[in-house]
Amino acid sequence: MKIGILGGGQLARMLALAGHPLGLQCISLEPAAEACAAQVGSVIAGDFTDEDLLADFAAGIDVVTTEVEHVPLVALDYLQQHRRLAPGRRSIAVAQDRLLEKTLFHDLELPTAHFVPVDSLEDLVAAMQVVGLPAILKTRRMGYDGKGQVVLREASAAEAAWSAVAGAPCLLEAMVPFDREVSVIAVRSQEGECRFWPLTENLHHNGILSVSRALLEEPLQALAEQHCQRLLEALDYVGVLALELFQVGDKLLANEYAPRVHNSGHWTIEGAVTSQFENHLRAVAGLPLGATDARCAAAMVNFVGHVPAASAVLAVADAHLHVYGKQPRPGRKVGHATLCAAHPGLLEPGLKTLVHLAQGGREGDAIA
Predict the structure, then answer these.
(1) pTM exceeds 0.90, yes or no
(2) Could you report the per-residue pLDDT of 37-79, keeping only the tens digit for each?
(3) Residues 42-50: contacts with CB under 8 Å, at least 24 apart
(4) Residue 203 and residue 294 in contact, taking contact as beta carbons nearer than 8 Å
(5) Of the residues 169, 189, 269, 279, which has the fewest C-beta atoms closer than 10 A?
(6) What are the Cα distances from residue 366, in Å, to 312, 343, 356?
(7) Would you call 101 helix, strand, or coil by DSSP?
């Protein structure tokens, strides 16, 4: 079977790698000149809105999935006339718009931070009175890795904040005093079977995910699964989905979802019975789902802007290096390492070293 992937970045690369042992061929459509997925699979270079290119793409595949949610809807409209989309158009369209996404959460009775739509400076001033401060002004579209967000702490900053988002449609969201950020990653089959990996705790640096750690025997696991399953079923979803949540005491507030494999699930490659990448392909291809149990305590460290020396990373016991083959530049995810251990406490020394290396430290440097 040939799986068409919209996007040719590192997620498409890892999907292609997971597909090879299953006898699945992945073919990506990617607008950017450089596509790291091309190093391990087939890539068609061109614009998502080129109908002739879409026709060629559709002719050579059996099903379409995506590694990015920001795909022009006209491309999805064309492709779904010719091939099955997994996940479907609605799942992707809602994830592209924060207001639609938050409204869906509200309709499903998933708790969220208080939010108000904002379409003008006057709306923003009024919204601050409703939501309160501090709050976060978020663009409705194209926000990821901390982009499209402005923190508001004083009413006097409203004009500058509105200027920073260049008048784009937004929503103002109350800042949540959360205990920690977590995500639940799930897979749903074509028949509606849902499976969930252990809840994952996520730490960010400069708005970009830095460390993800699998939470074993987590008391909030069942609640996270309930929230996520409600979303999966409402969307009639097929494939892997990540639901990002804020933990506030014994509650979980829905922040956003990603209709694709997700950065916080990279630990599943070595740390779970079946990785998120393999299970996404199984679901999309109509194959039986694999077990999502953790094999061990596991964590992931992102490498942003640079990849440390392989010798330094692999000197850490049970560390596994993944290099994406992308040109390094500030703020760009260029690789990651996963770390496994028999017990969560045994992860700490290795994690400390990997984070030190990720932040530009050198092998052998003293680590505070």
Answers:
(1) yes
(2) 999 999 999 999 999 999 999 999 999 999 999 999 999 999 9
(3) 43/8, 48/6, 48/72, 48/75, 49/74, 49/75
(4) no
(5) 169
(6) 14, 25, 10
(7) helix
Residue 341: name the closest of 243, 244, 214, 220 by CA.
214
Q: Stretch 281-288: mean pLDDT, rounded?
A: 98
Look up residue 104 and give its amino acid: L
How far apart CA 149 and CA 231 sit, in angstroms, is 25
Residues with Cβ < 8 Å from 274, sequence gap 6 or more? Answer: 268, 282, 289, 290, 291, 292
Per-residue pLDDT at 214: 98
d(CA 283, CA 367): 43
Q: How many alpha carbons lie under 13 Å from residue 368 in its C-beta half-sphere? A: 1
**Phi, psi (deg, nearest 5) at residue 42:** -85, 140
119 Cα distance to chain centroid: 27
* 70-122 pLDDT, tens digit each: 999 999 999 999 999 999 999 999 999 999 999 999 999 999 999 999 999 99
Q: Tally Cβ neighbours within 10 Å of residue 216.
A: 15
258-272, pLDDT tens digit by residue?
A: 999 999 999 999 999
Mean pLDDT, rounded, for 328-336: 95
From first CA to last CA, the distance across the chain in angstroms is 51
**Fold designation for 2-85:** Rossmann fold (3.40.50)
Q: Where are the domains of the chain?
A: 2-85, 114-174, 180-358
Pairing of strands 2-6, 200-205: unpaired
* CATH architecture assigned to 114-174: 2-Layer Sandwich (3.30)
Residue 318 to residue 214: CA distance in whole angstroms:
16
Long-range contacts of 7-10 (CB under 8 A, 24+ apart): 7/37, 7/66, 7/67, 7/68, 7/71, 8/32, 8/35, 8/36, 8/37, 8/38, 8/43, 8/67, 9/35, 9/36, 9/37, 9/67, 9/68, 9/324, 10/36, 10/37, 10/324, 10/326, 10/333
Site of tokens 């002004």: 137
Rounded-to-integer distance, Cα 270 and Cα 340, Å: 7
Residue 328 CA neighbour count, 13 Å, CB half: 10
- Alpha helices (H) in 310-347, listed in sequence order: 310-314
Average pLDDT over residues 235-250: 98
